[in-house]
Design brief:
Blueprint lengths: L2 H31 L3 E6 L3 H15 L3 E6 L1 H9 L6 E3 L3 H9 L9 E5 L2 E6 L15 H4 L4 E4 L5 H13 L2 H4 L3 E4 L2 H9 L5 E5 H6 L3 E6 L9 E6 L6 H10 L5 H6 L3 E6 L4
Parallel strand pairs: 1-2, 1-3, 6-7, 6-8
Antiparallel strand pairs: 3-10, 4-10, 4-11, 5-8, 5-9
Helix pairs in contact: 3-4
């Protein structure tokens, strides 16, 4: 083969390769810039965050992929290396746990939402229960169980146990609890008529037309219900901070409030 022809052929192949890489480079950069934001969020946030995620996509063309579970389970998953960009907890304890393990960026942490704790029954129930000291739920439950999140781990379960203890009702029901892996599972037991009563957040009760609120627990019967949110320590997604800012914005506020949440929007580096 003629040397000049060989050299030209090699040059042509290198030129094609360089041009090809040049064409691919913008696509790769664009893909990185539009990476989905992965959010680990408490189960009770589902309705609100589904709406907010959809609003975020309509406004920006970007997407938030949201995984819902109990806050304790999510914190443990992040600790085990699950690739989340944002952690949205239903209580301070599990966010404090994540902070103590170095799993979040503390400067990004915000106590964003408040909620209320309620007693629910299947729709159409005529139960009238006064949540006051001396409360005894055992006769009302009969042979059935009280549905609530796991009392040693799930935030709504911990709040529920604290409220029952405050009212003097825990001893009468502690062996009659149907403990669930998250608050939405407890809600479902009541919604299906499998439990005559359940303890959930007000926002959960409002989301299900098959349950009714029997009564609201006094605020002083349990620790304040606060939802903190933060970026995770290992997140390198540039879109995550933008989505967190959107959660704090006036555009998200009415979507949270429509689901029954109280907006706190106070920055916090600790509990």
């Amino acid at each position: 083969m003629h040397p000049a022809r060989f050299a030209f052929g090699g040059f042509t192949r290198r030129l094609v390769l360089v041009l090809g890489l040049a064409c691919l480079a913008p696509f790769g950069v664009a893909s990185a810039q539009t990476k989905d934001t992965v959010v680990f969020a408490a189960a009770s946030l589902k309705n609100a965050l589904d709406e907010i995620g959809a609003a975020w996509t309509r406004e920006t063309g970007r997407r938030a992929v949201i995984s819902y579970a109990a806050s304790n389970a999510l914190a443990k998953q992040i600790e085990a290396g699950a690739p989340a960009d944002i952690f949205f907890s239903a209580d301070l304890d599990w966010m404090d746990y994540a902070a103590s393990k170095g799993l979040i960026k503390p400067e990004s942490r915000v106590s964003l939402l408040g909620n209320a704790l309620v007693l629910v029954a299947p729709k159409g129930s005529t139960q009238q229960i006064a949540l006051q000291p001396g409360l005894d739920l055992a006769p009302i439950l009969g042979s059935h169980r009280l549905a609530m999140g796991h009392v040693n781990a799930v935030p709504a379960g911990k709040y529920g146990k604290a409220a029952l203890e405050h009212l003097g009702a825990w001893a009468g029901v502690k062996d009659r609890i149907a403990q669930t892996e998250n608050v939405r599972a407890a809600l479902l037991l009541v919604s299906r008529g499998e439990a005559p009563l359940g303890i959930v957040y007000r926002t959960d009760a409002l989301s299900d037309p098959n349950v009714g609120i029997v009564a609201t627990f006094p605020e002083n019967s349990h620790p304040p219900i606060i939802y903190p949110v933060a970026l995770t320590k290992d997140s390198t997604n540039p879109e995550a901070a933008a989505f967190l800012a959107f959660l704090r914005s006036d555009k998200a506020r009415p979507l949270f409030e429509r689901q029954g949440f109280i907006l706190l929007n106070k920055a916090a580096s600790g509990s």
